Prior knowledge:
The protein has 497 residues and is α+β, with helices and mostly antiparallel strands. It contains 11 helices and 19 strands. GO terms for molecular function: heme binding; molybdenum ion binding; molybdopterin cofactor binding; sulfite oxidase activity.
Amino acid sequence: MKISRTHVLFALLAGATGVAGSFAVAGYTRQFVVAPIDTLVVRLTPGPVVAFTIENVGDQGHLLHVALSVGIAAGLLGAAGLVGILAAGRVQRPLVGTALGSIVAGVLAWGITAGTTAEPVLAVAAGVPVAILAGAGAAPAGSAGYNPSRRRAMASAVGALGFLGVAGVLGRDQSAGSEGEPGPASADVVPSPAVRERLRQADEQRLDIAGDDVPGLVSEIPNFYNVDINQFDPEVPADDWSMSITGEVGANTEVTYADLIDMSVEHRYVTLRCVGEQLNGRKMDTAVWTGTPIKPLLDGADPEGACECAMLHAEDDYSVQFPVDALEDGLLAWEMNGQPLPKSHGHPVRVLVPGHWGETNVKWLTEIELLDEETDGYWEQRGWHGTGPVSTVAKLWDTTELDDGRIEVAGHAYAGTRGVGRVEVSLDDGDTWLDADLSEPLPGDDVWRQWRHAFDPDGVDEVVVRAVDGAGTVQTGEAADPFPSGATGWVRQRIDR
Length: 497
């Protein structure tokens, strides 16, 4: 049977409505037919393509692989619809052919969806619309070369568009429901007195900055930057979570969530910065994290590996290698600013290793594997330089004209565990440097500081800013792109008068 343009139209409608049906019942979760395809697309994308997208497209890069994944899903389900239409055309009896085409298309679409999502019940929602559209597009028996009428095709297209709209509304409702925590709802959790004290201290120590573009010393959770390899985050209920310490150890160890929160508790200010951001980007934030130190757990497992290194594994198959001595300073965190970790930040438990780039602080932690030989983690396999210490940076996030005519520049500075000793501002292209005002340091080894400086703009065309770490080392002025080891250089800002 020859494939006509009308057959292709119905196949396209079948593919689109199949994806929409899955979205209607699963929402934007890992049960959505697009989710496992997107995971595969991300895993198979070559490292140079990933690096180019991070540097040149930024936050919108995820839309590219999601769009590709939606297209692949629609193509697979549309192909199922087309197979059904062609199967119907081989049957001489019209009603039997239409029924057969619908069944073949629906079963194939259901099988594709169930096979990719492992959710056979939810997969029915993808199979049914594909079956209906395939039946509508099936040519009656005994009419070789016959195409459904134009009116029939138009009616089907209008119906499909209506279904897409309804599915979109239902899917958004499902997505909104999935965004809540698997454990207690964050809005119902009152931070502990210790956390409230740290939040109060951070608020008191923030600088009086005239502009509005510099956040406080503790970032609000909705504004805290979020980057991971997933577009569809894992859902791990706290009651089901456990972490194992395996590999080159004297004794394998397994810890449940109940075990973890019963251990000694610390509340730490910790700053995270994204290795893939541009030099003056805004993917740098600080929170008060509640958790328990990793070291006692490692000591109990008795690490024995020759390389003195460990691979951290996550629920989403992400992995990062750390030296054991760096990992020993880490925290297994389950709260953020006094609230249970949001799903997107690794609920129920994530790792925080002081002074290392944000992407190495593994979310949804499941295993710490002690190694005998060094092994590349997820980002090292894609050409990035792994878990090295974060580089020193002073960011210029706000420029405001004051009432007296002066210009105020302000931002944050961060140097990992080295701490920020001072921030310097130059008004003459680096020939001379002036000390900026700094917020008082918060307790902790891995915390940013705010800075501000006001000046008379007469004769000033550009401001240059740099930080000096606690050891007296000046932030490098050598400019480098984010790939492969993080952006470096001095931030410069033109002054327009």
